[in-house]
Every structure is written in C-alpha cells, then in structure tokens.
Amino acid sequence: MALIRDLNEKMLYKRTSLIEAARYLFVEQGIQNTSIDAIVKRANVAKGTFYLYFEDKDDILDEIVYEINRAILLKAVRSARALDSGDFTQRFIHMIDSIINHFIDNQHELKLIRKNFSWPVVKKRLNCVQEDTELAEALDSLSKNLHMTNYNSDEAKNIILATVEMCGALCYSCIINKQPIDIETMKPTLYRMIQKLLD
After folding, report:
1. pLDDT tens digits, one per residue of 107-149
2. Where do the structural domains in the chain lie, given as residue ranges?
3. How far apart are CA 170 and CA 162, in angstroms?
4. Fewer CB near the terminus (10 Å): N or C of the chain?
5. Element (H or E) spanning 164, and its range?
6. Contact present, 161 and 154 (Cβ < 8 Å)
7. CATH 1.10.10.60 fits 1-54, yes or no
8. Which long-range contacts (CB under 8 A, 24 or more apart) does 37-45 make?
9. What own/partner pairs with CB < 8 Å and gap ≥ 24 does 100-108 have?
10. CA Rg, the chain, in Å?
C-alpha cells in the first residue's frame, strides 16, 4: 500500500512540476516561444515523462486554462455566497465583480488564457471527471437560485454561461486592449445589463 501511495505521490509531483513549469514559461516567453524541451528542462523531468501526462503543448495549456478558470470561479462563487444579501441578482453581480477584479490584479493570467475564461471549459472537464464536487455544487447552486427567480433550469444555466462568457471576453478586451473602453468605465454598464437581464 505504501509503495502505491509513494508512486502516486511521485506521479502527482511530476505532473504538477510540468504544469507549473509550462505556466511559468508560457507567461514569460509566450506559448508559441515555449518548447516541450524547455518545459521538461524547467520541470527537471525526462522528455518521455511529459508524454505520460500530456499529448502535446495544447494539452498542457488546456490543463492550465482549466485550473485558472476553476480557481477564479470558485473564489468568485465563495465571495458571492459570503455577501450578506438575499438578493440573487446582487450576489451574482458581486460574483462577476470578483472575477473582473481578479483579472485586473492578475493580468498575466488573463493574457495566458486570452478569451478562454468560460464555464464551458470547466463544465467540459466536469463531464469527463466527476471528482470536482465543490465546483459542480457551486454551478448547480447558481442555476437553481436563478431558476427560482424567473427562469427554468435550462434558461438559468444558459444565462449564467452567457454572462460569464461575456465577462471573460470583456475582461480581455477592456483590461488588456483597453477597448472599447477601460474596464472600470465598462463596469457600471455591464452591471446594469446584468441587473436588467436577471430582474
């Protein structure tokens, strides 16, 4: 038993090392300028080890994008839940504000994932691997709360999906490119749109 546990820990360590190395290099050098050789060198593992865990550079990038999406969404959902308000719309706007503020403070992550901040990235993963119960419960809770207001379950999920997608695209455009305007100027308009949509 101990041997299997040690082996699993070593495998997890190597996989994590590869992800951390790729994330660092993608931010520092850019995705196109980072080779698999550079990733394995930084992770201090053999090149063959890379292919035990990932098919190619796109595969490890997908994993990094998933991890970033997951962390931001969970942080935002927790923040919204902690808000002392029974009003779902205000909690949802607070969640979106948390996401935007995260990207303002972590523009390197936004540059890395580009416009790939979305719930579908996370939901696709949840459909394949049912181990992320915390995130699955957060998504269900949001859609159920919205469903209780004015929408059926499918409509609620589509509204959440569309709003998070819009937030991700706006963050990239307004924070990185400052187009069409900067994000602080965009926030009030975005929040009024969400308010009208949900009320």
Report:
1. 999 988 887 777 667 666 666 555 567 777 777 777 677 655 6
2. 1-54, 56-198
3. 12
4. N
5. helix 153-171
6. no
7. yes
8. 43/14, 43/17, 43/18, 44/17, 45/14, 45/17, 45/18
9. 100/167, 100/171, 100/183, 100/187, 102/72, 102/75, 102/76, 103/72, 103/171, 103/175, 104/175, 104/183, 107/175, 107/176, 108/27
10. 19
pTM: 0.84
Q: pLDDT tens-digit profile of 31-47?
A: 999 999 999 999 999 99
Question: Which residue is associated with the tokens 């942080």?
Answer: 75
Q: Under CATH, which architecture does the 56-198 domain have?
A: Orthogonal Bundle (1.10)
pLDDT, mean of residues 159-170: 86
Model confidence at 198, in pLDDT bands (50, 70, 90)? confident
Which is nearest to 106 in space by CA: 136, 76, 132?
76
